[in-house]
Amino acid sequence: MHMKGTYFSIGIVLIIFIAIAVGYFFFHVKNPLDVAEDFYAEWTSVGNNFLVNDEYKKLTVLSDAYKQKLGETVGVYTIGTTDPMVCAQDKPDSFTASLVSETATDAEVLVMEKFGTREELVRVDLVADGNSWLINAITCGSGNTVDTQNKVADYVRDFISQLSPTKEVLGGTFFVTKISFNDSNGGVVEYEDGHISLRAEFTYSLDSLGNVHIDSFKILSEGEGKG
Q1: Model confidence at 86: pLDDT above 80
Q2: Percent helix / strand / coil, the chain, rounded to 5
Q3: Cα separation of 48 and 38, whole Å?
Q4: Angle at 133 between CA 17 and CA 136, to 5 degrees
Q5: Are strands 94-102 and 186-192 parallel, antiparallel or unpaired?
Q6: For 91-124, how does the pLDDT look when each residue is reduced to its tens digit (9 = 90+)?
Q7: pTM here?
């Protein structure tokens, strides 16, 4: 009887342990910050080999929508080109991640990468998927670093005529006279064509390949947006 009681007790303990393990597996929701950190730890340890031969398509942490977008933008990846996950050709020396926001359906994590003395800020957007999170977008230059501002400023200068809703007059050509940036991925540009001068407020973003996108461009009235 004593042995039967012992076996019975051991059986109960095992059942409880299995139930806890199964419950944890099925009902534990992994923190989006942990998902992002684990992904970058693995990605930076392997390097950009995930992009070779489309190995990234096998990663379960990436959403199907993001895999499709990567397929459209990356094309046939070759070593030496920009890695859209780290926004650089080389892997960072180290990184830190911080949770910016989290709701029941989505979350945002910022990853600060360090390349020697240079830093690059990357935004990771995640979507809830059952009991875990999937990376749904990675945006380069999600911070007002000097490198990012210079890149955006060059883009605005090059495409000011196309960006401006007001067009040149009397055969003039727009050129930028001043650009200033704020702390929210935006800024103000002043430009003229030799006949008229304008000021406009703009916002920008960079995609996973580091390409600049001007998301909004609004002409300001005299005195608007100053101070």
Answers
A1: yes
A2: 35, 35, 30
A3: 16
A4: 165
A5: unpaired
A6: 888 999 988 889 999 998 989 888 888 777 888 9
A7: 0.54
Q: 115: burial class by Cβ within 10 Å (0-12, 13-18, 19+)?
A: middle
Q: Which pLDDT tens digit goes with each residue over 141-170?
A: 655 566 778 889 999 999 999 999 999 999
Distance, in Å, from the CA atom of 83 to the CA atom of 47, rounded to the nearest integer, reads 9
Other C-beta atoms lying within 10 Å of the C-beta of residue 189: 25
- For residue 93, the SS3 value is coil
Contact 191, 161 (CB under 8 A): no
* Among 42, 73, 44, CA closest to 58: 42
Burial 13-49 (b: 16+ CB within 10 A, else e): eeeeeeeeeeeeeeeeeeebbebbbebbeebbeeebe
